[in-house]
Amino acid sequence: MKFGRPPANQRRRRAASSSFPFGRSFPAANLSCGKEAPIHRRLQDGAGCVPSAPGEKKMKVALGASLCSLCLCLPLMGQEIGNLPEGVIESRGPTLVVDFDAASKAEIRLQQWLEFAHTMTGLNFGYWQGIPQVQEQYEGKVIRWVGTKAIPRDKVFPLLQTLLISQDLILIPQGAGPLQTWLIAPLHAPALEAAKANARFIPVEALGSFRDQPAVWIYTVVPLRFRSADRLGSALQAGMGRRQQGFSFHSLPGENAILVQGFGEAVAEGVQVLQQLDVPTSSPKAKAPAQPSQEPQIQNQGDYLLFKANFRSEGALNLRDLIALCEEEGGQPFTLDASLIHNPSVLDTPVTFFGDKKVEKTKLFAFTQTILKVHGLVCLPTGSGESAMIRLAFLDNLSPRRLMGAALLVDWREVEIYRDQTATYLATIVPLENIHVQTLGQNLRAAYHGDGFMPLPSESALMVHGFGPFVAEMVAELRKLNQPEPAENSGS
Question: pTM for this structure?
Answer without folding.
Answer: 0.45
